[in-house]
Amino acid sequence: MKKILVLATGGTIASTHHQDGLAPGLTIDQLARYFKHNSDVSVDFQVLMNKDSTNMQPEDWLTMAKVIDENQSRYDSFIITHGTDTMAYTASGLSYLLHGLKKTIVITGSQVPVSFKRTDAKKNINDALTFAQKADIPGVFIVFDGKAILGTRAIKIRTKSYDAFESINYPYIASIGEQDIQINFQPETETVVFPRHFGICPNVFLLKVFPGLSPAFFDFLQQHTKGLIIESLGNGGLPFEKRDLVSGVEKLVSKGIPVIITTQCLEEGQNMDLYEVGKRVADAGGITAGDMNTEAIVAKLMWVLSQTSDPATIKRMIQTPIAHDLDYI
Q1: Last residue of some domain: 130, 152, 183?
Q2: CATH number of the domain bearing residue 34
Q3: How many domains does the chain have?
Q4: What is the pLDDT of residues 273-325, one digit of tens each?
Q5: Are 159 and 255 contained in the same domain?
Q6: Is 108 annotated as contributing to ligand binding?
Q7: Residue 85, annotated ligand binder?
Q8: Is 63 annotated as ligand-binding?
Q9: Which pTM does this prediction carry?
């Protein structure tokens, strides 16, 4: 008999009407009633927190990771019910914190509360149970709208539709129907390069570049962050004429602050050597993130900075594929 532990964290799936709008309100017993399963699987439930996922913090990833780690010998797989707004960040965070754990960890939720008449929650719960029971693929996955997505590759791109998440720069892992699963892509087994580490440094900053952004902003960042992620233009370019942002990157790097360069384009990653505007960023010390998505970069940089402040080590760890987060395309 397969044993599954469901960890409840709140989110829309468990929300009810409150005076100021929807907020998590179902008890664990009320939520558990919707987890209908066969007699050949045992399902236990535990409440970790009861939050709208907008209020989810990196420290909460640690709470989830430690509970899963402590229970790995008792359960075959885990399901986390979670709000959708930060689900992709949590999936990435757990992918790094639990990298190497030979268990299937499924995160699911819904766009409409499970207690509502028309809801996607019941299907997502059923699909999560099916994947957790039958997939037998270690790692962290988001199961939503009949699809299983690798945790480091998921992005929420819709606010209302049931198909809220997409897999970016990586194949969908599985399609899930009623009590049935079709594995579409089997990730290769990774060699664990870095030891498991339960630590997070949340003092990072995410900057989206736009025409007109003042270079003076980098002076502020120099005093207030330990790591910067820049969503650059196109293939990794930053302006160096008039409002020179490249010199801002160089200034931060000279102070030992890592600057990770990604792109605002969701698909196809980046190539900083293709254009002068990108090559100058690389020469200034910007660290390319290849085809990683922003949610994964944020979580990975927090995890890396909790372990080291050495620039060379930070670059090596960021650019080493972990949980299939990098270099698929």
Answers
A1: 183
A2: 3.40.50.1170
A3: 2
A4: 999 999 999 999 999 999 999 999 999 999 999 999 999 999 999 999 999 99
A5: no
A6: no
A7: yes
A8: no
A9: 0.96
